[in-house]
Amino acid sequence: MKILFAIQGTGNGHLSRARDVYPELAKYGEVDVLISGIQADVNFPYPVKYKLYGMSFIFGKKGGVDMFETAKKLKLFKLISDIRKLPVEEYDLVVNDFEPVSAWACKMKKKPCISLSHQSAVLNEHAPQPKNADWKGEIVLKHYAPVTAAYGFHFKAYGDNIFTPVIRQQIRDIKPTNEGHYTVYLPAYDDETMLLHLSQFEDVKWQVFSKHNKSAFTQKNVSIQPIENDAFIRSMASSTGVLCGAGFEGPAEALFLGKKVLAIPMQEQYEQHCNAAAMKDMKVPVINHLGRKYYNDIRAWLQSDVRIEVNYPNITADVVAQLMHEQVARPAIPAISVA
Q1: What is the pLDDT along the chain (339 residues), one digit of tens a residue?
Q2: DSSP percent split of the chain into helix, strand, coil, nearest 5
């Protein structure tokens, strides 16, 4: 069986999850990998057959998506050309993690496209939604990568075909400790903004992983370094808590490690506001942006020792097995052992 595994390359969560999904798919046949997007900082350890420009939302520097840069960097004619040229008809199965080129290629050629993504779960009617409706964001989420069947991951199993997060093996294998620092990953804020606000909490040691910097430096009580997968995992695993955006994989991994989490959803990013709604339901603290208005909330979080307990068993093999059984009815080679 020939399988195309198409992965969104904007942000790091998709590629982090795909590290564990790929080996499970490979049990069922020959897997070709497609990655599109220009905003990832995590390397993928398996061969990539198609590396496409895709359609990325560009992180801003003040807490949201930079719509001007997003529009500026959009290569529409290349996107259309890549959609038309991608030979999805040569594959027995297309598995898609919120990747637009393969999804639209399948739609144009009337070929099934199976979603295995967090976004599929966010769109489920039973998943938490933000109080303030965002019809534009919802339309983008629904039509960015159209699929014919959906299997999703979320903070909780909110409905049928919604599963708890894929916690990559690298996280499962590490032993969490508490060395007293706080790990920060806020890709929509620049270094200047983070330094301005985090330095106000003088007794706190912040380890910031920055999307906007290529060299490490320390100023006052804030150390800033470029994003590097292993360094980030070590910092998070040995932290007291994690200050991060309201993405999915990052907060889920921090919660799995028993860390207290404070989340800040990106502005103009509907999916993150849906994630924030889910985290609020779990009693994870959420603030709207990094600014003076929320200093008391940040201070309260720093002083609190409340950690949200989660149960995220390793079910990646089972989820892929279910997908295969329902979509192609083909056994694994070798067969998956369901414990």
Answers
A1: 999 999 999 878 899 999 999 999 999 999 999 999 876 667 899 999 999 998 877 677 777 776 667 778 788 999 999 999 999 999 999 999 999 999 999 999 999 999 999 999 999 999 999 998 888 889 989 999 999 999 999 999 999 999 999 999 999 999 999 999 999 999 999 999 999 999 999 999 999 999 888 899 999 999 999 999 999 999 999 999 999 999 999 999 999 999 999 999 998 899 999 999 999 999 999 999 999 999 999 999 999 999 999 999 999 999 999 999 999 865 554 433 333
A2: 35, 20, 45
CA–CA dist 67, 227 (Å, integer): 23
66/142 same-domain check: yes
How much is the pTM? 0.91
Instruction: Verify that 22 and 154 share a domain, yes or no.
Output: yes
Q: Is residue 27 part of a domain?
A: yes
CB of 48 within 8 A of CB of 54? no
339 part of a folded domain? no
Q: What is the CATH number of the domain that holds 182?
A: 3.40.50.2000
Is the same domain home to 153 and 54? Answer: yes
Identify residue 16 by its one-letter amino acid code: S
Contact call for residues 127 and 158 (beta carbons, < 8 A): yes
Give how far Cα 264 sits from Cα of 68, 156, 193, 250, Å: 22, 19, 14, 12
Domain extent at residue 175: 169-303
Is residue 223 located within the same domain as residue 277? yes
Asked whether residue 129 is assigned to any structural domain, the reply reads yes
State which H helix or E strand residue 102 sits in: helix 100-108
Contact 222, 198 (CB under 8 A): yes
Q: Assess whether 320 and 294 both reside in one domain.
A: no
Domain count, the chain: 2
> Using CA atoms, how far apart are residues 193 and 246, in angstroms rounded to an integer?
18
